[in-house]
Amino acid sequence: MGTLFTKPCFREGLFGTMHTACRKFLRWKISRSEFAIQSPRPPDRARPGKMEEPEMQLKVKKVTDKFTESMYILANEPSVALYRLQEHVRRSLPELAQHKANMQSWEEQSQGAIYTVEYACSAIKNMKDSSVYFKSIEGMLRHASAMKDRLNSTRR
User: Fold this and answer.
1) What are the distances in angstroms from CA 92 to CA 66, 98, 103?
2) What is the pTM of this model?
3) Residue 73's closest CA among 31, 18, 2, 24?
């Protein structure tokens, strides 16, 4: 029964041939176990290994089917979930890696733009602060111009 935990096969029905093999094995095992439902007839009239009452056969079939299905689900549900998770990761990982690379590129471009804007803002602030010096220079130039005019007028 080592094949019970292999990759699920969805080609033949919901769970494929593994389910059929598991079901047959469990029916065989239960019918020969101490839990097998025996016919209520006296031992002299009952045939070993066979049940003649259709109602009893139906009950046994239902119990066996439910038990088989439960065993199969318990045995394979984690592997099916992990298989589907693996498939999802395999399909979505390249796309996520591309998104990550794009985001890193955009982050680098954004950092460059932020640096440029901050540098421009500091340059504008420094220009605004330098207006005091320009006013002082303008005043000195006017004073120098006035002194020059005075010197020119006294020379004449």
Assistant:
1) 37, 10, 16
2) 0.37
3) 18
